[in-house]
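[agent] plan:
  1. take the single chain provided in the ticket
  2. run structure prediction with default settings
  3. attach structure tokens to the ticket
  4. add a short note for the reviewer (M.T.)
[agent] executing step 1
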Amino acid sequence: MPSSLHLQRINPTNSASALPSHQKQPLPIWLCPISPDTHPPENVHHLHTHAVRSNQCCSAAVQTIHAPLDTVWSVVRRFDQPQAYKHFLKSCHVIHGNGGVGTLREVRVVSGLPAGCSTERLEILDDERHVMSFSMVGGDHRLHNYRSVTTLHNATPFRDGETVVVESYVVDVPEENTKEETCAFVDTIVRCNLQSLAQIAENLPNKYQME
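[agent] step 2 finished; step 3 output follows
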């Protein structure tokens, strides 16, 4: 059975764009782009609620993977090896920290994308709840103030062997782009990453059985 993926997008709309530049911007709107039928556990649902300003967009992707949760998590949690399933990245080097919260990595992007490199900080790594979050804090790219949260949970509480991955993000919209264009670009990357993750994780059990 092939893995399934769904995109869920929310773009905040308020009157901020109509305000003169000298006026104070309104407070961000707290939004959760996760559909209720996704059913993430209550103890991680709030992590997908982002503070979204008028110049930002927020979206999420949900991927069902036919592999045990621990298998999928073993790939996702490696902050030092995102290129293992994120094929838009060609290299990663840890430049500060030892893999815990606050660790900084520098990733290099494959040619053909409007970016060269990104400096990223690990914000959350929770092995018990299966939560990982990182933010982009520097580099040569257009995804300013990008922050993502990825959570994993069993597809059903009574059946092992199937994992649901939920990845949500918030990011600034570049001045020359619309919110729809920005989300479409980032959604494409997230979707490809999760589909690659599914392919790798679903093949790992077979690999172990062959060894």
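[agent] step 4 note for reviewer: Residues 140 and 148 are 18 Å apart (CA to CA).
[agent] ticket updated
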